[in-house]
Amino acid sequence: MKKSVIIIAASLFTTVSFAQVANEAEHLFTGNENNAFTEQWGNFNTAFVEASGNFNYSTQYQFGDDNYSTVYQYGESNETYQVFDGNGNWSMLTQDGEDNYAEFIVNGDENSIYAEQGGYANYLYINMNGNYNIADVYQYGFDNYASISMYGDGNESWIDMDGGFNSVEQLITGSYNYADAWVIGFGNTAIETQSGNGNTIMVDQFGEGNSTVVAQDGNNNYSYTGQYGVGNSLYVTQSGEANSNELYQDGWFNNAEVSQSGFANSNFTEQIGDDNML
Question: What is the pLDDT of residue 4?
């Protein structure tokens, strides 16, 4: 095992630990009081950290073979924590701003994460357990929260959030499911839960104080919800197989609840205006 301490810029500390052969780690810093720690166990792992600014911190653990992770941090007091346990996993993270935090915990093989955070005090958490899962997250603004948990194989998640005090949570259990959330504005929340195989949830929210909850249990179910305005709320549950839901709300303080169970049920609902209830 080898350890190295390299001073590249003023008040900079970096530690790299290797075990086994042909692992590679590089830390490149500009600024003051930036820190990084990398530990690798296995073969042909690669870890890269670049920080420009002050008080940025990164921790990376790689256990297995052929894992690859890259972290770019620009600004002040951003923090990253990553653990790969498996083979052939890949991640790329960019944080630009202040007090942003990202955490990736990956157990399995051939998983991929691409994430961007810009602004301040944003929080991102991704937990993958399985193989061939994919997550893409784009989070800009302030005090936004994104959480993705996957248990299974071949699942895919996408989150795009811009504004402040927004929250998206995605929980996927099973295989080949897809979750999508596009949130723009302030104080919006979205919760997407899927259990089974081949399910799809897509959520769009633009405005302020909107809330969406979608839960699916079964196989090959589909749900799309769109909310535009202020103070709207949606609640959708589907269980069974091959059910389909499309629900739109545009206005202020609308409320809708839809529940479907069985096989091949279909719903299409649109509400436009204020204070409507379904």
Answer: 29
**Helices and strands in the chain: count of H runs, count of E runs:** 0, 25
Q: Which residues, listed in sequence order, are joined to residue 189 by a DSSP beta bridge?
A: 167, 211
Stated pTM of the model? 0.92
Residue 16 region by backbone torsions, left for phi larger than 0, else alpha for psi between -120 and 50, else beta: beta
- DSSP 8-state class, residue 257: E
Residues 6+ apart with CB under 8 A from 221: 196, 199, 200, 238, 240, 241, 242, 243, 244
Look at residue 21 in the predicted model and tell me its pLDDT: 66
Are the C-beta atoms of residues 159 and 134 closer than 8 Å to each other? no
**pLDDT at position 80 over 80:** yes
- Pseudo-torsion of CA 238, 214, 170, 218, nearest 10°? 0
